[in-house]
Amino acid sequence: TIPKENRFTKCDVCVLIHRELEKTSDRDRRTELEKIRSEHNALQMDQRARYHDIRSKAEVDPSILSIIIDGMDQNATHLPHMKKVNKSSVNLWHLKTHLTGVIIHGHGSSGFLDYLQWPHDPNLTMNILLRAVVGQLSTMTDAAFPKKLYIQLDNCGRENKNQYVLAFLSLLVELEIFQEIELGFLMVGHTHEDIDALFGRISMWLRKHDALTVPDLLCGMKAAKSDYKGTTIFREMYYIKAWIIPHMESLHNHSHPHIFRFRKASDGLSYMQYKQWRQSEWEPQPGRGIRLLKSTPTGVPPFVRPNVARMDTQIIKADLPKYATSGLGAVSIQWWKAFLEMIELDMAAERDVQSVWLLTELHHLKEAALPAHTVAIQLPQQLTTMHNTEVQPIPQVYTGRRTPKSRSQPTQNPPPEDSSEDPPPPTQRRRRAGQEDSSEDPPPPTQRRRRAAQEDSS
Description:
alpha/beta, 8-stranded mixed β-sheet, 8 strands, disordered N terminus
């Protein structure tokens, strides 16, 4: 069922206009408020149209990779999840999980699940972006490596709209992973897009089914949408933020623009430009852009140490017997015991910093990708001929005596016969023509009959 009230957060401007309209009945005031609302909606719709245009291009153009990343409401995926909660289990402790959804347009959707053991900061966004891109491009071995990367994110400054993510995208261009990267943000309060439709499908599945364990939840996510490829459990996170900080320039006022672009200049370095809205001009103008990196980081970032205490595993262990009397079967109880023990051991283990760094994997994928090439497209000859006729230049329109010319060759106005003297009047031209041709003209019919009669009489 569709809720009567939209549960998404509202735009501050829209809410304020709505309140002002409710308070006034003055016609002029209402007209002005409606005008402001119309301009506001036109602006946010134009920004949304930009995202839709990019999404459509990426679905048909292999040189473009378009990706949107966002997080689902974590309250919807607490475990164990029961579609009908009884009184004895309502106050029991749950394992908090967080799903970050990813849609790569034209290639399907997927997700990354964590248990809140990782801080939700720029590291989360950068790690998920790398893993999603590496995972997708590793399946595209028969295609050329994309030249442009478009990213759509939420306006959250803690995770997305910050100088660390911007510097990292600049690094991807400087390392020649991509030729160009564009990062977009929708207007605050109007950021709900196709990724939220994915979350809606998952929430709908959870309203109809139990998800007593993590495998149950993963199966439900995959069943919720046909093109959902699966969910990756986030078991390790690179500390990219600490790795890139020493090589960054300080950046200010970057929370205001909604579109950022990263490209290489003729000096071989990457620069950032930005603009407020789709129809705005790129800034700074003129110039190559803003240099975000002082130097290029090398080596492999360390791993972030997980915060197991945030998972409250001991409290969940203590509540397992109570779950047994609240509808959680013996098989699910056994799974939870093994899972909690495994989690504690896994989080306490040291991470292997010698594992393949994701940027290195991207380099290998680009080297192994097929070179970009243009495929000759065969079209029907009749269509080609008709199209060529349509685009051929047309003849010039002119006055005066008709000059025969082919249609394919445009003509200029014919030059006058003699610009030094005026042409004779029509009567004089006829007299001259009669004098010139009088010797050759045949006699009139009456004269011919008289001659014939004279010849017969003789």
